[in-house]
Amino acid sequence: MSENIVAPMPGKVVKFLVKVGDQVSADDEVLIIEAMKMENTIYASSGGTVQEIKVKEGDLVDTEQLMIVLG
């Protein structure tokens, strides 16, 4: 079963803290989004392996936009 990590708010993807193939656990930091001039760390809600990264650093994302797929 896959788990999707979506943007909780609109913003700019600043930095990825994982890459495809990495193992993550629930509450691990996976990326940073800049919104309202603040950096917001995004955490994995469950564990798994990073299967796909759907955005790249510098991309603007909307609320609920798919960013990372965990398998």
Can you give a write-up of this model?
This protein has 71 residues and is mostly beta strands. The protein has a single domain, classed as OB fold (Dihydrolipoamide Acetyltransferase, E2P). The protein has no helices and 8 strands. The protein has strands at residues 3-6, 11-16, 23-24, 29-35, 38-43, 48-53, 60-61, 66-70. The strands form 2 sheets. Strands 1-8-6-3 form a 4-stranded antiparallel beta sheet, with no helix packed on it. The protein has a 4-stranded antiparallel beta sheet with strand order 5-4-2-7, with no helix packed on it. The mean pLDDT is 96.
Give a short synopsis of this structure:
The protein has 71 residues and is mainly beta. It is built from no helices and eight strands. It has a single domain (3-70), classed as OB fold (Dihydrolipoamide Acetyltransferase, E2P), CATH 2.40.50.100.
List keywords for this structure.
mainly beta; OB fold (Dihydrolipoamide Acetyltransferase, E2P); 4-stranded antiparallel beta sheet; 0% helix
As for the CATH topology, it is OB fold (Dihydrolipoamide Acetyltransferase, E2P)
With strands numbered from the N-terminus, the spatial order across the biggest sheet is 1-8-6-3
Count of all domains: 1
What is the chain-wise order of helices and strands? EEEEEEEE
- What is the strand content? over 45%
Structural class: mainly beta
CATH 2nd-level architecture: Beta Barrel
The share of residues in helices is under 10%
Could you list the spans in which at least 5 consecutive residues all have pLDDT below 50? Answer: none
Top-tier CATH class? Mainly Beta
Tell me the distance between the termini.
6 Å
Mean pLDDT, all residues: 96
Total of helices: 0
Give Rg in angstroms: 11 Å
Q: What overall form do the CA principal axes indicate?
A: globular
CATH superfamily: RNA polymerase II/Efflux pump adaptor protein, barrel-sandwich hybrid domain
